[in-house]
Structure formats: structure tokens, C-alpha cells
Amino acid sequence: MIKRVHQTLLLVSVLLTIFFSIIIYNSLQEKEENERWVIHTFEVIQKATTLLSELKDAETGQRGYLLTGRQEYLEPYKNALQNIDSELIELSKFTIDNTKQQENINALKYYIRKRIAVLDSTIKVYDKESLEGAQRVINTDSGRISMDSIRSIIDRMLSEEDKLLLIRSQKLKRSTDFLQFSTLLALAFIGLMTLSAYITISRKDKENNKLVSQLREYNMNLQSEVHNRTAELEEKNEELNRLNEGLIKLNAEKNYFLGMAAHDLKSPLNNVKGLIELLKTSTKNENNEQKEVLIHIDKSVTKMANLINDLLDINKIEQGASNMKIQSVNVTLLMRQVLEGFKKHASDKNIQLYYNKPLSDIFVESDKNYLVQIFDNLLSNAVKYTIPGKEVKVELTKSESEVKIAIIDQGMGIPPHELPELFGRFKKLSTRPTGGEHSSGLGLSIVKRLVDELGATIECSSEVGRGSVFTLALPVSAS
Predict the structure, then answer these.
(1) Domains and CATH numbers, the chain
(2) What pLDDT sits at residue 208?
(3) 3-class DSSP string for 296-316
(4) Residues ≥6 apart with Cβ < 8 Å to 197
(5) To the nearest whole percent, how much of the chain has pLDDT over 70?
(6) Which three-class secondary structure state does DSSP give residue 381?
């Protein structure tokens, strides 16, 4: 009876595993499809804004030629005309599935031809007659009317794509949420089955131990039975070892999944970041609300990219994927280089950065990349938590045995009871960034792991209302 129950549970486990695998696979396919459509929408927006930019370039080239009469101004004009044709073709291909956008493109082609015809006729009149003749053509306002129509059509196209982007982004979020839920449910099921197996094995092990104790009390004639029981025990122990190896493998797969998921997220985030930068440079007529939306998107993408990088760092450390290379490092120069990267952030918050160091350069035996990551995290926190209008100081000192780097901020400080949790993973304390910056709760945990690997030490002293001091101690270079 018990054996039949175990067989039934095993069959149910196999079926559920297959079911979860199918669900996760389908969810991944749906997520990838939704990601493709979101990227497709961004590409259409990019093509439309690029087309408008090329038209403006054509106008600029024509205007420069009319004002100066210099042939070199016609080069950007001619280049823009060639690019306009190719951009129209690309835009038409990208929106072939959208009837409304195809109607907009047909109207756009008509008005673009009219606008180019006016530009071309103006140049021809200028060449044959004079600037006054060209001005007569311009004063007919046909070119301006065509350009206004072009802008209106492109605005409609962008509005349509914005609606599609919202719908497709919502679909992508739903598919991503469902994938995460399915994955967590599958992991919970695996964990439950593992726990069930462990309990079963433990119970069997206890029973076997009890049987061995009883057998030892019997006479020597029962040695063969004892031998059989011992063999059975060894078999159970081997099974337990196999299960333990399975648990280790499962943990490794978890780390692999985390790394893979983070890497998969980085690529679309980089694409979105690139599109944002393109929008910043190519779109010149957006209103204040559009600018604020663009800035908000940029900040959100940056926050998520930073969180993914932190997760990748933690994952790499947990997997023991260390490629530490100890060498002589000029820590004076390295700190100055890292500080340069925080000047803009500090300037935006009206925070002064000060660097106090000895006259001669200081060297340490350490890993350069580890030090850059440690300095970067500590300085990022200092600027992030310092009150606007205050100061962040870096003090570099050297003794016979060690080099100390103190990073001093003027933030709100850390309550004494929270200091023991400071370097814990995902620990978010009561102190909050003073400029609304994002904090993943991983930065100081990464710092502590890297410092430990280097054989260095780090300490923090803090006073509520006055700020904090992080002191890193590194061994002096032998050279």
C-alpha cells in the first residue's frame, strides 16, 4: 500500500514537473514576442523622428545656400533628400501591419514630395534670377503649409505608436509577471518535493539505525542478517549523498538562472537607453511634459540597470567566479580618477568634493578592478546621502604597515542600532538618499565581500545629524 502511494506521488511529481516546464517555456516565448513588439514600436518612433530631422536638415541646407550662395551648403541638402527616401521606405516596411499608419505614410509621402518640390524650385529660381526671386517663391507659404502638414502627420504617427507602446508594454509586464510567478511556483514545488524526499530519507535512516541496534543484541548466528542490513544502510546513505549533490546542483542552477535573467534584462535595457539618448538628441520640439517624461524614463532605466549590475556582482561573488589579480596599484591616482566620475552628480546636488592626500603617490598591493568597485560604491553612497550644499571629503593617509582611505560625508548619519546591519545584503536602513536617488541595498554588501577577498578591512563610524565616515585599510605595497 505504501509503495503504491509512493509510486503515485512519484508519477504526480513527474507530471507536475512536465506541466511547469511547458508553462515556463510558453511564458518565455510570449515574453520574447512581447519584447520584440515593444522594440519594434521604439524603432518606428525612431524612424519617424529621424525622418522629420532629415527634412529639417534639407531646409537648413537650402536656407544656407540661399543666404550665402555657397555650393557646400547644398551637400547636406542633397544628402538629406537621399536619406528621406530611404527613411520613408524603412518606415513603410516597419508599419506594414498597421493600416492607420500606412494611411499616414501615404499622406506623408505626398506632402514630403510637395515640400521637396518647393525647396528645389526655390533653389532653381535663385540660380536663374536672384534672392528676391527665391523670396517670392518662399512668400507663397506653400512650403510652410506642407511642412506644417508633415509635422501634424508625424505627430499623429507618434501618438499612435505611443498608444501601441502602452498596450505592448502592459502585455510585456503581464507576461513577465506570469513568468516570474510560474518560475517561483515551480521552485516552490521543487523545494517541497526536496523537503519531502529529505523527510522520507531521514525517517528511513532512523528506522535503519534502530534495526542495527536491535541486530547487535542478537547472537552471532544472525551476522548474515546484520550484513544485509548494513548493505541496505549503505545504499540509503548513497541515495542521501545523491540527493545532497542534487541540492548543490539545484543551488548552482538557481545562481545560473539569476545570472541569465539579469543578462537577458541588460540587453533590452541598453536598447531602451540608446533610444532615450537618440530621442534626446534628435527631438528638438518637445514640450516640457515630454521632456519630464523622457527624464523620468531615463532615470527608471538607470535605476534598473544599476540593480541588475549589483545582482550580477553578487551572483558572481557567490559562485566564486573570482579573477582577482594582485599587483602594485597607485591608489592616489586611482582615487582621483574615480572621483572625476562623481563630479557631475555632486555638482547637480551642489555638493563640494575634497581630496586630501600626501604629496607623493601611494602604492598598495591589491586588485585594481576590486578597488575601483569599492571606491565607486563608497563614493556613490557618500554623494547619495550627503545633504545638498554640504561636502564630501576623501582623506588618504599612510603608515608603515597600511594605507587608510577615509570617505567622509555630511549626511543625516546612521543610528547606532543599525550599524551592525550596515553591510548586510538588501539592508535598507532608516536613512534615505537626499536627492531621491535609488538604493538597491546591495552596494555595501558587495564592498564587504570584495574587501574580505582582498584581505583588507573596512569600518564605519557615524553620528546622527552629522554624517558618516567609512575607513578602508589596505596593506602597503612592498615597492
Answers:
(1) 22-174 (1.20.120), 327-475 (3.30.565.10)
(2) 76
(3) HHHHHHHHHHHHHHHHHHHHH
(4) 243
(5) 79
(6) helix
